[in-house]
């Protein structure tokens, strides 16, 4: 029995499942609550970009649900079907959050630059890191274990850096929505709940990644 997995990873996985359920239920609840100004997610995004003097960003629709993202490569702010052309607390809140990422990029927010740099490292580390560590343990090749752990830590670092990036984007979203007068105080409370539930998924993902890394690290020490 892998006691490290039970102690370090399973609780984080359970938190992740709970967080995902909270996001879906909270988003669904506030998707049915219309806002007084009756503007859609796309309209809110364009308005907030203009208010923050952010230029060169195109707001586009994207298929799926909760697939919203800001892509700095082609400078597009992609909003999902339940957000782009929908006027609700959830839609405008999510659109404002993604606009927050566009504002971060425009203002040169350091953590988002660092996270972008870590993307290839994270992709490689999450795929190859654990495999190399396990292979090294099986063959008693300590250098493979060390390489695997270093690569794996790159993916852990990505998840950790993601936390301030996402929290800051939500903070910017709430601030710009309030300053621009897009929502009243009651509606902003709903946005806080939607974005707060989303934030828990990032926390859970970071804990799963960190728990797995510590698990592999302890396993290697037990074999020494």
Notes on the protein architecture:
There is one protein chain. The chain is mainly alpha-helical. The chain has helices at residues 3-31, 41-51, 81-84, 89-107, 110-139, 142-179, 185-223, and strands spanning 58-62, 69-71, 76-80. It is 76% helix and 6% strand. The chain has a three-stranded mixed β-sheet. A hairpin with a 4-residue loop joins strand 2 (69-71) and strand 3 (76-80). Helix 4 (89-107) crosses helix 7. The longest helix is centred in the C-terminal third of the chain and has 39 residues, at 185-223. It starts with a helix and ends with a helix. The model has no long low-confidence stretch (mean pLDDT 93).
- Overall mean pLDDT stands at 93
Q: How large is the radius of gyration?
A: 20 Å
Strand order of the largest sheet: 1-3-2
The biggest beta sheet reads: 3 strands, mixed
Distance between the termini: 19 Å
The percent range for helix content is over 70%
Assembly level: single chain
Beta-strand residue fraction: 5-15%
In the predicted model, the low-confidence regions spanning at least 5 consecutive residues are none
Order of secondary-structure elements = HHEEEHHHHH
Q: State the helix count.
A: 7
Structural class: mainly alpha
What would the principal axes of the Cα set say about the shape?
elongated
